[in-house]
Predict the structure.
Amino acid sequence: MTFLERSHLDIIRAVDLHGSMTAASNALHLTQSALSHSMRKLEDRVGIKLWHREGRSLRLTPAGTYLLTTANRLIPQFVYAEEQLAQFARGERGTLRIGMECHPCYQWLQKIVTPYLRAWPLVDFEVKQKFQFGGIGALFAYEIDLLVTPDPLRKKSLHFEPVFDYEQVLVVSSDHPLRENDHVIPQQLGEEVLFTYPVSQDRLDIYTYFLAPAGRTVRKQKVVESTDIMLQMVACGRGVAALPRWLVEEFSEKYPVRAVRLGPSGVQKQIFLGVRRTDLEVNYLNAFMELARNYSEHS
């Protein structure tokens, strides 16, 4: 016999989000008595409490916490399915939501967006920029449809496709002492200020593949969100950075900076596009991946 309904998941999620039954009832456009009655009926049928009352506040029981976790996982998928059906009903193809785990790749993405939007005028297009960033989790939670990342995580339900190779290099000013070096070694960066994007060190290639294996670090790390500002700081001799070689070469006419190899063999990387395997037949998503592959092959 079915006793758990979508409405129960909506209610427990709304109470957690808004802090009380009253606020949740307003958000769901239901009366508080209807909300309370629905949840009491569920508690009676399963024979367990979902909340304990503490004055005017509610505290979840272990069963309530489990139900909230389930709601947070399932409701986005319901919303996603409803959005897709609504778009089909309106004659649209769907929405392509892209998550970025590669800050420098915004420049690459900009070159693909315009031809894609022209080719697919009925597809809504969104770029999620504020993931600092659980991109894999965002794919599983249906918050994004495609992930641009240099660090794929192999899962059976996900598909990752490499779209281009690149070399991560040290970026220095045109008058930096290391500018003419064929390559640098970790010990040479001990007194440097390193500019990085706002991500954890374990996701910064210069630490993972260059400094950490040698047991070395820099004098100071400073976070900069903008690529342009980062390169201006490097050009003015305020520090160094680590960026893809193609990006440094692209900006070298604008800023007096040089690229120097990290170690004798360099740090070689790839950019991947990750999607859910269940979406591999979605035509507008496949079209974006094909455009990305073709651009990379001919650039």
